[in-house]
Amino acid sequence: MHPFQCVLRARRCLRRGPLASVSWLLLRTCRAHSSVPSFACPSPQRQQEDGVWKDFSSRLATGPTFQDFLRSASVPPEQPSSSEVEDPPPYLTVDELLGRQRRVYLETYGCQMNVNDTEIAWSILQKSGYLRTSNLQEADVILLVTCSIREKAEQTIWNRLHQLKSLKSKRLRSRVPLRIGILGCMAERLKEEILNREKMVDILAGPDAYRDLPRLLAVAESGQQAANVLLSLDETYADVMPVQTSPSATSAFVSIMRGCDNMCSYCIVPFTRGRERSRPVASILEEVRKLSEQGLKEVTLLGQNVNSFRDNSEVQFNNAVSTNLSRGFSTNYKAKQGGLRFAHLLDQVSRIDPEMRIRFTSPHPKDFPDEVLQLIRERDNICKQIHLPAQSGSSRVLEAMRRGYSREAYVELIHHIRESIPGVSLSSDFIAGFCGETEEDHLQTVSLLREVQYNIGFLFAYSMRQKTRAYHRLKDDIPEEVKLRRLEELITVFREEATKANKSFVGCTQLVLVEGPSKRSAADLCGRNDGNLKVIFADVEMEDATDSGLRVRAQPGDYVLVKITSASSQTLKGHVLCKTTLKDSTAYC
């Protein structure tokens, strides 16, 4: 091999592998074609030496430098277009990474974050040549996007796998083999236990490994099980545009950050979704603009701890300003400095489309500084609804949960929010029967439900999770029957108080975003008001206030005014007045 070919071969290797392999390649090639020591590789023809090495120098000078191998924190790497396929690993060909029109069936379990993850996973697979199917029988690949927050959620997946086992075993030999994959939090928590327990499972992909799905499926085609459950410190899928799973949807979820640093003692999320990292603001705004252009009328900003958002992707964002916390709240981690905060993002998102509602979930009570509350109050298109997870009404239990606040601080925040945002709707999460919870602790939670009167509630019995601090430090000492009895009492009290709170809407006019037909009656439509309560009303002709004199029927995505006539703990009912716009509705509501 000519020495010049050595360098060109090394240059090609530079693009593919680490510098160490390049050094090894240069050394190996030069030694193979020269009798001189390894630190030099001159040509045997001395008369050509100067010309050859001058040519080397000029060519190498225009080649990559050390900086070319460093990823800038402020500039995201270029991504291949939809028509390009990334270089495959050595054991696969480009063709093997392609879906070749195999049909994928996706099932989603758990929270809204999993809904968004499903859309991200499908976007990646679609670009690799897979097709989507809603028919389980015609699927070539079945992917379950899973939840691991409670044992019941995982048991649901085990039961589903048992159902799918017969489908896989009865697969006709004339068809390509059926592949089954577990995605998301359960894959991350249990890892190889799933592969060992259910040999029918072909692939595992944790929440940060969806980009690797084409490779995992390609490996599975050879009959091997494949897994990637590595957590990332920087993966946010900022460059992946989620594909909406419902073409007729009026709303969408937009993930703005991933992971959680709070380390509450009961929670598995930091162990299944990793540390907090936020998407660059610019990529979020671009996604929201595209959703607005598609005609969607509502966006929910998503994150495990959504209001702790902190974009430090640009050097100029990293000022020395500390995070502002709600009064009386603390964190389990060192105060974070700099970055563009949630108030900045919320401000920018709300400016994109005045006719698009903005929601966000799930927040932590500690991250509600006054600037966020003021913005919610001032912007008509930011919904006056706040999710404020309490988890318990007992300060002693809250301390054991490592929540970073007392009951008194939480109640003070409730009062402050209601003073700052008149008419705000509140929702919350509660856990019944946490480690060491006494009857007195339980009664304090009951009294908090009565004191606050939440409009919406999510209540669950405690489920011990491996890896959590509670698993290692506390004892799950509340009998299951006691947990369930306390849960039923909390649910009963919540419904009583929510009914009282929701009856305050009776006689009022509410702006409702129409979602579609009611599930209980084809003669009714349903939608949601600003407070995220379901509103049911008759599907009848009404005045179109946006086009004087015209009478229309409401369609999904329309804003309508509904006068509320009755209320329960979960639903408002009323009669529709007219079609309107978000901007014009402020004169009525």
UniProtKB/TrEMBL annotation:
Protein's name according to its UniProt entry: Mitochondrial tRNA methylthiotransferase CDK5RAP1
Entry keywords, A to Z: 4Fe-4S, Iron, Iron-sulfur, Metal-binding, S-adenosyl-L-methionine
Catalysed reaction, written as an equation: N(6)-dimethylallyladenosine(37) in tRNA + (sulfur carrier)-SH + AH2 + 2 S-adenosyl-L-methionine = 2-methylsulfanyl-N(6)-dimethylallyladenosine(37) in tRNA + (sulfur carrier)-H + 5'-deoxyadenosine + L-methionine + A + S-adenosyl-L-homocysteine + 2 H(+)
Native species: Bos mutus grunniens (Wild yak)
Family: Belongs to the methylthiotransferase family. MiaB subfamily.
Enzyme Commission numbers on file: 2.8.4.3
GO molecular function annotations of the record: 4 iron, 4 sulfur cluster binding; metal ion binding; tRNA-2-methylthio-N(6)-dimethylallyladenosine(37) synthase activity
Record domain Radical SAM core: where: 246-500
Superkingdom of the source species: Eukaryota
GO cellular component term, pick one: cytosol
SUPFAM superfamilies tied to this protein: Radical SAM enzymes (SSF102114)
PANTHER family the record matches: CDK5 REGULATORY SUBUNIT-ASSOCIATED PROTEIN 1, MITOCHONDRIAL TRNA METHYLTHIOTRANSFERASE CDK5RAP1
UniProt cofactor(s): [4Fe-4S] cluster
Domain MTTase N-terminal per the UniProt entry, residue ranges: 102-222
Record domain TRAM: where: 503-578
GO biological process, any: positive regulation of mitochondrial translation
